[in-house]
């Protein structure tokens, strides 16, 4: 499954599924976000159908970003069955993504 992009209008349906969803909050002007993108893409390929990966552009989705109190980016929130379980700010190494997404 490819990385999905969510906006305020469809964020809830993207994370309400059963299982693990990794949500990355980012912006096109954010250097660390651009550095994290290839790690996230590789993680998504390795995880396959076991994990959904969703990206949210904070500039295009201010309501969702505010709802989850995103103050710094990149920010990553791990959801399990639609419920936030863990959040981290900054570039996450592949091993940390793998550990956090095991549920």
TrEMBL record:
Keyword Disulfide bond: yes
Metal-binding found in the keyword field: no
An example molecular function term from Gene Ontology annotations: protein-disulfide reductase activity
One Gene Ontology cellular component annotation held by this UniProt entry: cytosol
SUPFAM superfamilies reported in the protein's UniProt record: Thioredoxin-like
Record keywords: Disulfide bond, Electron transport, Redox-active center, Transport
Domain of life (superkingdom): Bacteria
Record-annotated disulphide pairs: 30-33
GO BP annotations listed: cell redox homeostasis
Domain Thioredoxin, first and last residues per copy: 1-103
PANTHER family (UniProt xref): GEO12009P1
NCBIfam families (alphabetical): thioredoxin (TIGR01068)
Family indicated by similarity: Belongs to the thioredoxin family.
Protein name (Swiss-Prot/TrEMBL): Thioredoxin
Organism: Paenibacillus donghaensis
Gene: trxA
């Amino acid at each position: 499954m490819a990385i999905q992009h969510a906006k305020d209008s469809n964020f809830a349906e993207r994370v309400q599924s059963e299982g693990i969803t990794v949500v990355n909050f980012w912006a096109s002007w954010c250097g660390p976000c651009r550095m994290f993108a290839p790690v996230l893409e590789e993680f998504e390929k390795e995880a396959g159908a076991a994990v959904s990966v969703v990206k949210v552009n904070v500039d295009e989705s201010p309501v969702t970003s505010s709802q989850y109190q995103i103050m710094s980016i990149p920010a990553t929130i791990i959801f399990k069955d639609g419920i936030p379980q863990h959040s981290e700010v900054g570039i996450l190494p592949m091993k940390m993504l793998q550990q956090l997404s095991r549920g």
